Amino acid sequence: MLRYATVLLLCCCLLGQYAVAEPVKGEKGPQPQPAQQGQAAPSDGGLSLSVTGGTRRLRDNVRAHLSPLPTNPAERASFLFTYQDKAQEALQALGYYQGTLNPTIERKEGNWSLSLELEPGEPMRYQFVTVLLEGEARQDPAFINKLNNLKIQPGDVLNHGDYESLKTSLITLGLIRGYFDGEMVQNRLELDRDNNIANLVLLYDSGRRYGLGEVTFWASELNPDVLESMVPFEPGTPYHSDEIGKLTNSLFSSGYFQDVKVLPHPEQAEDGLVPVEVGIAPPPRHSLQLGFGFATDTQFRISTIWRTPVVNRYGHSQETRGELSQVNPKLSFDYRIPLSHPLNDQLQFQALVGREEFGDIDSNQYQAQIGRKQVSENGWTRSLYLRALLEDWSQDTLDRRAHYAMPGISFTHTRRAGPPLDPRTGFRQTYQFEHGDSALGSSQRITRFRAQLRAVFTPYRKHRIASRLDFGVNVINDDELVDLAPSLRFFAGGDQSIRGFGYQTLGPTRTVEDDDGNQTTISVGGRYLLVGSLEYQYYWRDKWRFATFVDSGNAFDINESEAIDVVTSVGVGAHWISPIGPIRLDVGFGVSEPDTPWRIHVTIGAEL
């Protein structure tokens, strides 16, 4: 009976296309009515739709199957012939084969509306779910794990989308893991509509698992040994698309290439090994980069970087960097020679000339260093080096000079999750040990240790915690401390230390007298360093966050006549997560000091 009513309405619709009512002069013609809540508003000659009953997921699926709605009489006529079948398909796709539709079609002043009331009934559920494997995948841990954790289980409501996803995921997993001959041998979904039950049977025959074969490089002038050192697998390694991704990342990260394309060829496999072809494009011979920056510690800064990513066919590279600022201008040179791996094992030659302010001391530094940097499989970076340092400075109205030859070792490890410029969680740790001795050419005998820890975590979506800890110690004779170069002493204060105070202005002080007899207290740095910080951040917009913090600690000496002077500051800040990294505006107040000094700090860059 319902079908006949639909046909009758369709005939009226078709006839109505040729009957155009002229409005009486001075009166308004029929006006489209705004859609009611839950309806789609019709255009002139179209139709509005309202769906009620059932779950929200069922209603949304029905609307999706009936979209787009008709916008003219001809489309409306076709829609009224097919909407019931499409709505039933929407219910059945989610396992409701016993559902009924209660439609109501109305026409008011030329506006058509269709109201569907859903009575979904009981859903169809799986009675048996059988997924079988043939071939080498039967012994593959990844496939075994997938079968042990199927998203479809007996008793679940039938969902055709989940069923199709399961089939696709088995085939996709096979391709990812090198089962290029895999196929779905059996693919049955048996439906018993009378008893409202479904049975699923899938049989995936993976065939053999292929291995990775030889890697061929095209259009590269680099020595073959350098190229092969960047291949993360040996021929015969079981195929996995992750290995292809690792190779791509290794080549890009080396800086040797402007473009990289890695193409495995399963169709050319021989003896079960898939050859891999790599097409690469060389980078520009030289590149020059100009940059501008600002931070409260270093003021305005202009930097230039000259890079030569490939000096010769052996993969040597160089980077020359110049920075001009009011506080610490410097010029540095870094020359890298790949050893066993261009990224993970390098011989480095470095040189630096610069000037830096340490409290009230201006220091000129001349430095050269040779070392070996290695990155382990677990992400730790180890550097073994020999550093030569010549430093000039003025202190106590006297010009001083010291020189050092210090072997050292450092370890660094960083892990993070989330966007690199604003990670949700992460932990960075750096440890450095150096030793200088007169027998090696140093002005004093000194042993140094420095540890720097940085951590961030986000316990809740809008709430973030950032913390850091800096610790340092110099082992040196008391009578030689005054002659220690400023860059080897410890100072506190500044953007990355204790906010509310100037850059490297905190630490042990000394009273000096100038030529006119005036006495001045200056900061001369300490033997030890201990500074900690805890900061709470709240995201009040996606790219904006409010911060409040406390910083505490100092650089100090330990002796019987002086107590440790612990300096503490508190403050607030506003941070904008910009495309180049967080830009932080913080205001710190030195609450531990009698006059409560305060200072504005502007910094750019992530905490890790």
TrEMBL record:
Main subcellular location of this protein, as a coarse class: membrane
Residue ranges of coiled coil: none
Domain called Bacterial surface antigen (D15): residue spans: 419-605
Sequence ranges assigned to domain TamA POTRA in this UniProt record: 49-120
Record localization: Cell outer membrane
InterPro entries the record matches: Bac_surfAg_D15, D15-like, TamA_POTRA_Dom_1
One GO BP: protein secretion
Domain of life of the native organism: Bacteria
Signal peptide: 1-21
Keyword Signal: yes
Single GO cellular component term: cell outer membrane
Keyword annotations from UniProtKB, A to Z: Cell outer membrane, Membrane, Signal, Transmembrane, Transmembrane beta strand
Stretches the record annotates as Disordered: 25-52
Subunit record text: Interacts with TamB to form the translocation and assembly module (TAM).
Family: Belongs to the TamA family.
Protein name, as recorded: Translocation and assembly module subunit TamA
